[in-house]
Amino acid sequence: MEFKIDRSEVLRYLQTSKDLEDENINRLLDESIAEIKRLINFRYLYQKFPIQHTAEGVKIKNTTLTLKGRSIKKHLQKSDEIYLMAATLGAQVDKKISYYEKISVTKSMIFDACATTAIEEGCDQLEAEIKEKVLAAGNEDITFRYSPGYGDLGIDIQKEFLRILKAPKKIGLTASKYNMLLPTKSVTAIIGVLEEKETAAENLNNQEQEIENQDERDLEFEARHCKNCLLYEDCELRRRGIYCGAKG
Hints:
two-stranded antiparallel ribbon, single chain, alpha+beta, 10 helices, globular
């Protein structure tokens, strides 16, 4: 898989203007992008599972895992099948981030942002691959990818999630005793299969409901949930104004 590592995305993760004119920062950015491309060992896997909606949560059939929480239940409410996916940039990227943390705070921050951009880019490509398979099978669409730690879906499912996919053996992806992914520049996610799109009436009704008191509800939700989330600082969904399916 070829990585572009969009410069503007890296600067966005750094919370810096895309028109940055600092010569030193731009040099470090160019160096980091080139270096990380050489280090990436992108490995991934995914598998489709049927699911069952129960009072306890979303049961993944043929496994021991049940996805619990209101947000994931809402996210998958129109799905009967899901894909579990896992991806990693590999251990060398983590080692290089640790190395730069010891010698240059600036370089380590830039390199880390490049790595975050790279894993998101890889997952975007992987999501597109899954969508192609879903459409080829006659389905209408997929949900956006939803990771443990979003909303009220706990990260305590990471180990079982990885075990089901055989990720430790197949791609070297594990979870620590605190349920953090190792290597750290890795992603696990759930994608729902949608057999049909919403009707025009359903879509209009949903839009009307979303518009009503939108600003107040968003502020309330972020105050109650996002700021307590482990992914608050790095959450791509929050930056796009998407609160991981748990609005309302």
